Amino acid sequence: MQFMLLFSRQGKLRLQKWYVPLSDKEKKKITRELVQTVLARKPKMCSFLEWRDLKIVYKRYASLYFCCAIEDQDNELITLEIIHRYVELLDKYFGSVCELDIIFNFEKAYFILDEFLLGGEAQETSKKNVLKAIEQADLLQEVSHVG
Amino acid sequence: MSDVVEKTLTALPSLLSLDSQPGSAKLSSTSKLGNLIRGITELTSKHEEEKLIQRELTSIKDQVSSPNTSMRQMKELMVRAIYCEMLGYEASFSYIHAIKLAQQGSVLDKRVGYLAVSLFLNESHELLLLLVNTVLKDLQSTNLIEVCMALTVVSQMFPKDMIPAILPLVEDKLNHPKEIIRRKAVLALYKFYLIAPNQVQHIHNKFRKALCDKDPGVMTASLHIYLQLIKENSEGYKDLTASFVTILKQVVGGKLPMDFNYHSVPAPWLQIQLLRILSLLGKNDQSTSEIMYEVLDESLRRAEMNHNITYAILYECVKCIYTIQPKSELLEKAAKCIGNFVLSPKINLKYLGLKALTYVVQQDPKLALQHQMTIIECLDHPDLIIKRETLELLFRITNGQNVTVIVEKMLDFLRISKDDYTTIDLVGKVAELAEKYPFETMNTVFSLGGDMMQPDIPNSFLKLLSEGFDSDEEDRKLRLFAVDSYVSLLQSEPNKLPQRFLQVISWVLGEYSHLSAELEPATVMTLLSKLLDLKHTSSETKSWVLMAMTKLCEGGVAISVAQDIYETHSSSMDTVLRQRAQELQHLSQDSELRGRVLPRDAGLMPLEVDSSLSFLDGFVSEALAAGAAPYKPPHQRQEELAQAKALSLEPYSLSLPISMSSCSIADRQSPTLMSMSSGLSGDSTDLSHKGGSTTLKLDGVKRVWGREGYLAQREPVEETAQVEVPSPLRSPSQQAEADSTQSQTPTPTVTPELEQDKQQLASSLFVGLGSQSSVCLMGKSDPTPQRFRRKAQGRASSSGASEKTPTSLGSTPSPVDNLLCNSLLDSNLVSEPTNQTPQASQSLDTTNGNCHEELTDVKENNPSLIHNNEEPDKPKDLCLSSHLPTELSGLSHSEITPLCSNQSVNLSACHVQKEDSLQLVIFIFNSSDSALQQMQLQVDSGELKVNYCLSLITDSPVEEVRSHSVAVCHYSVTVKRPSVHVEVLGMLSYQLPGGTPQTIQFSHKLPLTTFIRPLTLSTEEYGSMWLAFSQDTKQNLTLINDDQDPLTTTLNVLKKKLQLHVVEIIGVEGIVACQLVQDQPCLMHCRVHAGTLAVWLRSPVPDLPDCLLYHCQRALQEH
């Protein structure tokens, strides 16, 4: 995977994770273009897009769009499921997640993503294990705050 | 120490159960970040946001540099800085502090520090060097979490040159007792391998150890490395094939812990990774391939569940099977899989099906033959991505016989494509085809397409020629070839060539004949001058020819030819020709001037554009002062200017504005049109402008509705017809009749014709594929499931109906029941043509997914589906309509459609059209023996929570439904944004006494037509509204031919079916108006032209014209 973007229906970026080194200018350009293209698509259209030499896989969950860029030979459907698994993880962690959870706790969303995908590859696909790792770090936080 | 930490860590989650809300996840509403976010959402303008963020950034900057800021506070500041960066504001001052935080903070502050670093910097950033020591320290930490964080950041970004510094430490971690550390270490090494393969060469044997790790997670991680290694050198890893096969076997056989299941499929990511590795290993290697046949078969067999994840595995399997050495049994199964994908109603699967077809079609062209009808349908798919992939597929099956049709399809696509990348790619492909299947490709296109072709096809071809491809040498060869082939064409029989082709020939000869050494300009001149003498050469073509000659007139003979031409044409009746002849004469005399006006190879020079024609200001003001009427540009003048990127044919090109930058390949007018419109741009009416353009411009609309409104009184309609209808002798209706007898025999249903068209297209697209001839294909096209699904629905429904009467109704089949059942069927089928089976119930969907391949399956499944639906419906159908809300009971309602059902509830819906809205009624029938409690119905029109396209006003919340009774929910619906079908999604949650809460979901589609209402207007009102609207669509529709006036009949059909208001019909033109509830008007102008109905729609609402047009087409087809 080359990058993952989360943005709202209004086109506001909510999360961005780049797995390839790009300059800020390029990142901004790509984000702008993709947000526009994806938002312009109708609900019943295909979740896959050809964009430059990449494949874009996107899915909308409520008001949020999850959008991943993969290479041509990668499997589109499994990418869709990666998105879904990530949403499941967020959902489990936040307890029926909504856009606000991600806006206000985006750093948490990043931590979960880092535990799930590492360097653009699925690192740990077991829901239990990912959350366990996050919980452990979180709990340490609680303990240290209390203490 | 580490043991203690570990114990605490593992014990803690059980103390605080995972399912309860983690305290930290609550909205941090009181935090500073919370304030910032709320502050931003309250702002109204971008400018305000900018100000706020700048203020925020300054405050962050002050605080981070203050020595009193604690690491805890620093952490909070970093989070805010990340947020500002995400909004697109640079916070580079904070980068160094992020690194500091990672370095000095406590374990938890570090976490944010590392996150900030990984988000702010990329691997080439120089500050990253400062992180190396921190990482080194953390890798050696006894705290697991610190090690994890260090490994995480390392596998995301690490300066290449510093890898040796930490490599030994990372290597050590491969032996760490905790699997999470081993896994992260493997991924870090994978990252190192990607950025600096040489650095990790010596530890290849350690990768093997990771592959054999007892933890499946670590093993999975090592596969990333192996995939990469095998990609680069498959020979070196053949010995591992058996191991990979064994792993896959175990995974498929469900030997992994349940944790690895995803939606009850065992470790799908691992499976796919393995399949990819296997396909690389088995490629071109018979013996290796043989090892994997069995497990592939097993994978295919196991992946039967209908879930995306299994499709993902199947797709990978199919790809693998077609990549390795073929085995016929497997190929057969894989082909069947592809068939399932292609025929799936789910668009994502369809896309992958096409992609798979594209992948395999070179090996197995017959597979494309099997799905030809689907492919043809995909060519017209509204989603460009599907279209694009179909073209890709066609590109792969191109042969000498079908190249013309395929190239034409590609050009069609080029015309609508807006994306540069696609355009470049596709143009390249067309060019490749043109090269592969010699130049005759385009010659055939032109000869066949003839004058019916859109003007932009020759233009895009000429553009292709002039802009060229990658290498100059290729370009030169291609152009030379074009010149040679055209010269020989002209020498043989030029009088048979269509006008447009002649125009192309003239341009190419004018521009490139100098490339050919043997060819004297005089020879070309003579050839061209013969064209001028031909009787049927149109004046438009003549002006192309003259322009070409202007470029060529060099040397003695040529000049004398030019002189002759000038003499014959200087007195021509046609002003344009006269002007061209003048130019020819002058420029042939003055070769220096000619060189300046018409430089060679000027096609690519960017031209300065002055679209306001400011250089004419003086002329205009003079004319105005002299009492001339102010100039009113024709409606599309601006557009034409933009479109008419000329190919530097005319002498005006230097002085006259021709937009170069703003034009796309698609939609361009011919260069002559450009020159003519520029030549006449000073004129103050659009009449003369049109006189010159003869057949090119076909919009008679302006004649009736001019800038000031309705002009019918001033200009009789007949005149329009004379100018534009090719043969004014025949009345439009006669002509339409004649046309219809030529092309089609009027039949009650349109589908067979459509089908015929498609089959014709199919036969032209798929010729030369496989051994079967297209004839026999046509002969037995019946069994294609697609066909069955489209047309045989009547059959299916009737057989379904007759089948179920005895079984379900028992003794007395009442007519009411039958009627309702039929309507149930109908409503199911109505949505079929759009290829979306109502996804109301999952079961319906999955059954469809299963049964596409076999006709018989469909037949068997359909009745049973109906049966399922119908049985529980029976008791309620009779009485459902009596439950309509009182205010609606007097009005006529649509058929009651079942939405979804389970063992305890049945949901159905109907709608009632009111003048200002659509009333949607949802019936909830409790078929269980106990009451439904805490019932909640949510209706929504996007996915999940959003409420966008529709505004819904509920007025009847019901909470409890007694056993065997019906609750009714009533909504008032209006459209906010038009689309062809508006989908309503809903979810019902309820609880049976003593049971757990349950939910059931449904979706319901309402065609846009249910929201269309007539709009009563006078012709004058129409005229003024017409001018005010900006959204504009034109298309030709089929005319309904009967004995009387086809226009009136057609409009009446539309009026009846779509509730349009026919404002007025004058001769061959008619105006129609309607509105989308509420108050969103759409106007339609119809004109009978050449046997079709040319309609022009305008509306202030985007998409409305297109959607309405779709429904008009449907209505006329169904008629």
Automatic annotation (TrEMBL), chain A:
PROSITE patterns: CLAT_ADAPTOR_S
Gene Ontology terms: biological process: intracellular protein transport
Molecular function as annotated in GO: clathrin adaptor activity
Role this protein plays: Subunit of clathrin-associated adaptor protein complex 1 that plays a role in protein sorting in the late-Golgi/trans-Golgi network (TGN) and/or endosomes. The AP complexes mediate both the recruitment of clathrin to membranes and the recognition of sorting signals within the cytosolic tails of transmembrane cargo molecules.
Organism expressing this protein natively: Sphaeramia orbicularis (orbiculate cardinalfish)
InterPro entries, per database record: AP1_sigma, AP_complex_ssu, AP_mu_sigma_su, Clathrin_sm-chain_CS, Longin-like_dom_sf
Protein name: AP complex subunit sigma
Alphabetical UniProt keywords: Coated pit, Cytoplasmic vesicle, Golgi apparatus, Membrane, Protein transport, Transport
Chief localisation class: membrane
One GO cellular component term: AP-1 adaptor complex
From TrEMBL, chain B:
Principal subcellular localisation of the protein: membrane
Compositional bias (Low complexity): 674-685, 740-752, 816-831
Subcellular location(s) of the protein: Endomembrane system
One Gene Ontology cellular component annotation held by this UniProt entry: endomembrane system
PANTHER family assigned to the protein according to its UniProt record, in alphabetical order: ADAPTIN, ALPHA/GAMMA/EPSILON
Family recorded in the similarity comment: Belongs to the adaptor complexes large subunit family.
Name the record gives this protein: AP-4 complex subunit epsilon
UniProt source species: Sphaeramia orbicularis (orbiculate cardinalfish)
Lineage summary: Eukaryota, Metazoa, Chordata, Craniata, Vertebrata
